[in-house]
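User: Okay, second chain of the day. Same drill as before: sequence in, structure tokens out.
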Amino acid sequence: MDLHFTIIDADAHHLDGPAYKNYLPEQYRARSGPYFPAFGWDIFLNGTTGRKPTNPQEYCKDLDVEKIGDAVAYPSNALAIGLVREFDLAAELAKAYNNWAADFCQESGNRVKYAAVIAPQVVGEAVKEVRRAVNEKGAVAVMMPTYVQSGLDLGQPQFVRFTPRLRNWIYRSAFMLPLKSRSAIRAFTNI
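Assistant: Same drill. Structure tokens below.
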């Protein structure tokens, strides 16, 4: 039997270093140093991870070589958004990443889809950003880090108004939630 199907890479990554700096409001563009805290490890494994496509055309060439039809790309540097201590900056970084990723995906002919980023430490802005990214920007997933500012946990009271909305949006989005506490697990699963 000859099967024909499209391969989808459901865990691709954008190499999002300084790529979306121009999408930030002017007051944040002149900052020195990185926008996100360091990972503490080399995400490129000492240069052994191969090519690092920086634009949609190169990204699609790599998809073609691997015979991948479409990809859902998650952030790389923005995975650390939950650790940004300046809450106004964290909210703006989420918007900037999502705007940049939406443009990147459109330029790929929509072969690359994206997982939106939210800053969970700014609950009100995160709720708005999920809605905007999914409904207006075409995000197909939402990446919500559960490793946030020291002392914060998704099971805490400030997240109570957020978690029911996330459960309601799950039919429209996927969430990367490595939950680490019983209270956070209960908030998302009612267990």
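The first strand starts at residue 8 and ends at 13.

User: Thanks, on to the next one.
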